[in-house]
């Protein structure tokens, strides 16, 4: 497999995507702690009997970045420059996470995209912009053909994101992922390269 250009940073307006770093642990943990009840219904969990082993945030970040350099995933954090006093891009606060996972090349050339955002920043168009940037990067820089998003039917905020960006609904997968302590049904949305024209960022503008 060809090596992917990593690290990479993307920006559109006041929304940025940059690699998850080992030094992000405190800010990431604080955001997750603030949003425990907001994120719990949508958080991935380990099914009974699974044991991935405990590891530190630093070890996780290093592992994910190593996988990114080999083209297996893209572990981004979402940053936002619209907060008070956040004029310098390097100081933009971490407001969420976006991960492109399951990257497959060969005859498939597809990936799955997932995300979360801090509740206090929800409703500002941050997530649609982040998804648009990441998807465009996958299509036009990495040469992928298909981007897929799996969403629980109850997650109305996330459903609005894919609706806004024009993702195509492909149907429901029963008990598809282990979320919030059980196997949960998900709706599958996808877009292929031929369907996006100049890209999703252009749809926002």
Spatial ordering of strands, largest sheet: 1-2-3-4-5-6-8-7
Task: Write the element-wise H/E pattern from the N-terminal end onward.
Answer: EEHHHEEEHEHEEH
Helix content: 25-40%
Estimated share of beta-strand residues = 25-35%
Shape verdict: globular
Secondary-structure content class: alpha+beta
Tally of DSSP β-strands: 8
**Mean pLDDT over the full residue set:** 93
Distance between the termini: 35 Å
- Residue ranges: pLDDT <50 for 5 or more in a row? none
Individual helix count: 6
- For the report, how would you describe the main beta sheet? 8 strands, mixed
Radius of gyration, in Å, reads: 16 Å
What is the gist of this entry?
The chain has helices spanning 25-34, 36-39, 57-69, 126-140, 156-165, 200-204, and strands spanning 10-12, 15-19, 74-80, 94-104, 110-117, 146-151, 168-179, 182-192.
Tags for this entry?
alpha+beta, 205 residues, 6 helices, eight-stranded mixed β-sheet
Task: Please outline the helices and strands.
Blueprint: E1 10-12, E2 15-19, H1 25-34, H2 36-39, H3 57-69, E3 74-80, E4 94-104, E5 110-117, H4 126-140, E6 146-151, H5 156-165, E7 168-179, E8 182-192, H6 200-204
Parallel strand pairs: 5-6
Antiparallel strand pairs: 1-2, 2-3, 3-4, 4-5, 6-8, 7-8
Keywords: Acyltransferase, Transferase
Protein name: GNAT family protein
Family: Belongs to the acetyltransferase family. RimJ subfamily.
